Amino acid sequence: MNVNSKLLAWVKNLTFLSCFVTYQALFHRKDFFNKVFKRFELNPRWLLLFSSKSGSRGDLYYDQGNFEKGIRLGQKKGKFGRLQRRRFEEARAPFSFPIYQSVKLDKANKAEPTLYFVTNSLPYTTSGYAIRTENVANMLRGNGISLRVCTRVGYPLSVGRWTSELQSMQRKNGIVRLIPWSFSWDARKRRQQSVRLLEREARNLNARLIVTTTSFEKASIVSEVARNLEIPWAYEIRGEPEATWLADASVRRDESSEFFQCSRLKENEAVQKSAAQIFLSHVSKESFEARGVKLSNPVILPNAVNPAIPVNSEEPRHRERVRPADKEEIVVGSISSLVGYEGFDTLIDALALTEDRFRLLLVGSGQEKDALERRAKKLGLQDRISFVGARPHSEIAEWYEKLDIFVLPRKDFLVTRTVTPIKHFEAMVCGVPIVASDLPALREATGGYATFFEAGNARDLAQSLNMVADGHHQAVKARQWAQERTWTNVGEDLIKELWTNEG
Asked: Residue 214: exposed, middle, or buried by beta-carbon count in 10 A (0-12, 13-18, 19+)?
């Protein structure tokens, strides 16, 4: 990349970012400045300077997904009223985006290009979503499939990650970054921009199949591109966004809200109109079937073991360490996003009911981090808990090594009953015992080889931790089960469903 190209890329990135930041500051003021202040570790009290009392009711309507009320609130005169109304109209706009029926699935030859349109990726995002994308892409390529991964328009600039290497079309490591010159303030124009950029990439690639992931907004974009190219598109259901929204909130939300109802209808439509439906679990597939969604070509592609983890060592690492005979510390914890439905408040409460030998390690960041730290201090547990924050993906293996018991303390919500995690597999294959909430998704994701407790019950969780510490666990069987759950093994059905070796 010469000097002129670098300068052009720098100017393009700056132009896009300035438009994006201005939009976020105007239409999502509170959330935007909250993220900025957390990013730079500023005093949150300063956030009050960027908030408006007149907008508090509008913020409440927005958080509750009541867009019609928000639009009516914005009918008043003045600049603020117009901005308020525009904010809600923007949030509502995706519900009117079309999702086109896919043409019938005609299996592509492995050598024929497939385009994989995703939300984010490593190294700019280290979530379970990004890790799954990396592993799925590597598994498909390892099976001879010609694959190109493409992240959403504007990413990673849209999450505050700047790099001088970005170009309008960067194909480094098989990943395309779609960076336009500007960020439109109109949702419909942004969608058409995404369609245009993605279609250009698909045509240049001569793609014969497009696969995308949750949510329905990406399905809308991909379905139009696929229709224009007269090729099939498949939908990978990685979660239920409306269910996640329902669970992850500091305000009261319910299923009767406009956001929940419209989002659910659009997700159902995306699943039904796709040529193939890729689910993370059987419970997820059954959830859509129970809602009356017709599945044409359903296939299960569950989360699996990272092939970089050594799975052939003779004995589980922690089998002899977790025992009651001595006074050595027992480190329990998790590596996860710190959001409400993950249930780490329950884990902290459980820690308060255990002996001092138990220590808690939480690796990750999220909106609940400050609240969890305050909870720990209130219970006098600050000396027994380590909040280490987010860590680069390259360091994660080191933090797994520090854990004696891996905990999945998810609360009982609509989303946690059906969406399976990926974060526990590394612990399982290393022989670390798993303690998990007794939820259908977690039973499936652990093969049933965990010590289960009643979701949200701190006392039951504390008892489970003591049981595991006393040596009553299934770490050996769990490890044996996880060793067979490689991406190569779990991907066989998907490959048979979507691709062929024939010319």
From this structure: buried
**Token couple for 266:** 């659009």
Q: What are phi and psi of 152, to 5 degrees?
A: -60, 155
Under 8 Å between Cβ of 8 and 170: no
**What's the average pLDDT block by block, 10 residues per block, for the chain (503 residues)?**
74 91 85 69 55 64 90 71 86 97 90 96 89 95 95 92 58 79 94 97 96 97 98 96 86 92 98 97 96 96 82 49 60 93 97 96 91 95 93 82 94 95 92 96 97 98 96 93 93 92 63
Residues of the chain with CATH 3.40.50.2000: 108-304+490-500, 330-484
Half-sphere exposure of 317 (CA within 13 A, CB side): 16
> What are the tokens at 489?
């093994």
Tell me the torsion sign for CA atoms 125, 129, 135, 139: negative
Query: Is the distance from CB of 436 to CB of 442 less than 8 angstroms?
Result: yes
Q: Are strands 175-178 and 169-170 parallel, antiparallel or unpaired?
A: antiparallel
Quick one: fold of 108-304+490-500? Rossmann fold (3.40.50)
- Strands laid side by side in the 451-453 sheet: 385-389, 358-363, 330-335, 405-408, 434-437, 451-453
Contact between 176 and 169 (Cβ < 8 Å): yes
Burial of 133 (0-12, 13-18, 19+ CB in 10 A): buried
Amino acid in the structure at residue 410: R
- Locate 241 and state its tokens: 């966004």
- Give yes or no for a cis peptide into 123 (omega within 30° of 0): yes
Q: Which residues pair with 209 in a beta bridge?
A: 114
Instruction: State which fold the 330-484 domain adopts.
Output: Rossmann fold (3.40.50)
Query: Could you tell me the pTM of the whole model?
Result: 0.91
Q: Rounded to whole angstroms, how far apart are CA atoms 229 and 16?
A: 28
